[in-house]
Amino acid sequence: MKKVTGALDALQGALGDMETVLADDYVATPKERKPRQPRAPKAETDGGAPSATGKKPGRPKKSAE
Length: 65
Prior knowledge:
By secondary structure, the protein is mainly alpha-helical. It has helices spanning 2-22, 49-53.
């Protein structure tokens, strides 16, 4: 019975929110974004194959033979 009561309360809350959003005088609040942080420059490595070729490390692709 508690689960049913909780579900009904959640449904009524959602219906109230829906009525608010669908009202004629509803104005959505604009979302505020955090300012972007510039990325830190990458550190130079000595002769590292992945950074020299620009490829990611890992297994090579299988070739269809």
